[in-house]
Amino acid sequence: MLTIGTLSKKTGTKVQTIRYYEQIGLMPEPGRSEGGQRRYDNAQLDRLSFIRHSRQLGFSLDAIRELLDLSDHPNRPCDEADAIARRQLKQVEQRMARLKALRTELKRMVHECSGGRTADCRVLEVLRDHSECLTEHDEIGA
Amino acid sequence: MLTIGTLSKKTGTKVQTIRYYEQIGLMPEPGRSEGGQRRYDNAQLDRLSFIRHSRQLGFSLDAIRELLDLSDHPNRPCDEADAIARRQLKQVEQRMARLKALRTELKRMVHECSGGRTADCRVLEVLRDHSECLTEHDEIGA
DNA sequence: CTTGAACCTCTAGCTGCTAGAGGATTTATA
DNA sequence: TATAAATCCTCTAGCAGCTAGAGGTTCAAG
Fold first, then answer.
1. Is B95 in Cβ contact with A99 (below 8 Å)?
2. Enclosing domain of residue B96
3. Which of A46, A53, A65, B41 is most open to solvent, judged by the fewest CB atoms within 10 Å of its CB?
4. CB-based contact A44:B88 (threshold 8 Å)
5. What is the CATH number of the domain that holds A55?
6. CB neighbours of B37 closer than 8 A, spacing ≥ 6?
7. Residue numbers in A near B102 (CB within 8 A)
8. CB within 8 Å: B85 and A113
9. Nearest 10 degrees: CA dihedral of A26, A29, A31, A37?
10. Which chain D positions have some atom within 7 A of a protein CB?
11. Tens-digit pLDDT string for chain A (142 aa)
C-alpha cells in the first residue's frame, strides 16, 4: 500500500497533480486508510507512470485518456493508438518547423544588435516592422 | 480615428484580445466616441503591431512589456532588449532540442507498430515502460 | 504521549486568450 | 427621417494543465 507521497516520489509527479488527475477522472479513486488518506497499489502506480510518460512525450490529457482506454482493452485493433501517436508526431514536427523559423529570425536580430542606444536597437526595430523579417512565422502559440 | 474592429483587421488580432491587452495595461486606454466606443490612432496601431509581432516570435507578454518600455526610451542602452531577445533565443533552442528528442521517440514508436491488437501494440508498450526509450525527454511542458 | 511530517479539502491563481449573454451605438440605405 | 444590420459595449466564465496556500487532520517514530 502506497501513500500519495510515495507515488509522488516514484513518478516525479506533484501530490496535487495526482489529486488533480483523480478529479478529472484520469486516475481512479483509490482506497482510503481508516483516517481517510489515499492508499494506492501497483496497478495505480503503473497507470500514473503511463500518464506521466505520455505527458513527457507531449500527449494531451485527452489523448492519454484514449490511450489508457485502449490499453485497457487488449483485444481491440491498435490502429487507433497508432493514429494518436502519428497525430502527435505530426504536431511535434509542425512545432519544430515553426521554432526553426523563429530561431532564424531571433538569431538575426541578436546578431545585428550592435549594443548602442535603444533608439538604434535592431531588436526593437525588427519587432516594430514585420516587413524586415525574412522568414514566415505567422501563427501564434502553435 | 480607427475603431477597434479596424484595428483588429489591420493587425489580425481578435477584438476581445485587444480589449484584454488594454485590461492588463499592455495597450493604453484609447479615446472614446460620444457614445463610448473606443477610437484609436496610428501610434496605437503601431504599438499593437509591435505586440503582435513579438508574440509571433514567441515573446511572453511580460517580456513584451519590457520591450515596449525600452522602445519608449530611446536614449537608454539597448543591452536589455538584447538580453531579452537572447533569452528568447535560448528558450527556442531548448524547446527545439526537446522536440527533437520527442520526435525521435515518436517516430520509433509509430514505426514499430505492426498494426495488430492493442495487446501487442508497441506504442502502448513504450508508453508503459520508460526504460524502452532511447532518448531523454524528461521535462514536461517545456 | 507528543511532535512533526505528511496528509486532507477547498478555493484561487497562473498564461494568453476566447466565447457568450444581453444590451447600446453607429452607419448605410430606403 | 426611420429602420435594420453591423458593430460596439461590459461582464462573467471557460480552456489546458497544473500549482499554491489556508486551515485543519492523521500517521509514524521516539
1. yes
2. 79-132
3. B41
4. no
5. 1.10.1660.10
6. B3, B4
7. 57-58, 92
8. yes
9. 90
10. 7-11, 16-21, 25-27
11. 999 999 999 999 999 999 999 999 999 999 999 999 999 999 999 999 999 999 999 999 999 999 999 999 999 998 999 999 999 999 999 999 999 999 999 999 988 887 788 888 989 989 998 777 767 776 666 5
